[in-house]
Design a protein that fits this description.
SH3 type barrels, Spore_YlmC/YmxH
Amino acid sequence: MGKVNLSYLRELEVIELNSGVRLGKVEDLIIDTEMHKVVSILVSKPKGLFKINDCLEVPWNKIKRIGSDVIIIDGVEYIEKAIT
């Protein structure tokens, strides 16, 4: 996969590689404007019954693959943050 835009990424579910846990969907990107590169993705945590939607910041280097319908990350440390 070559170039993608934010609209495309926002449709993708983020899944942790080792556990298969769904962390949420891409909400936004953090960009370093001096280095001209994406630093991280913001992943919206699933909304619970009484929870507001907040985000996990996942560094770009944790992304292992961007597929046609999911983004795979290597980051078991984000699982607990996603479900709490």
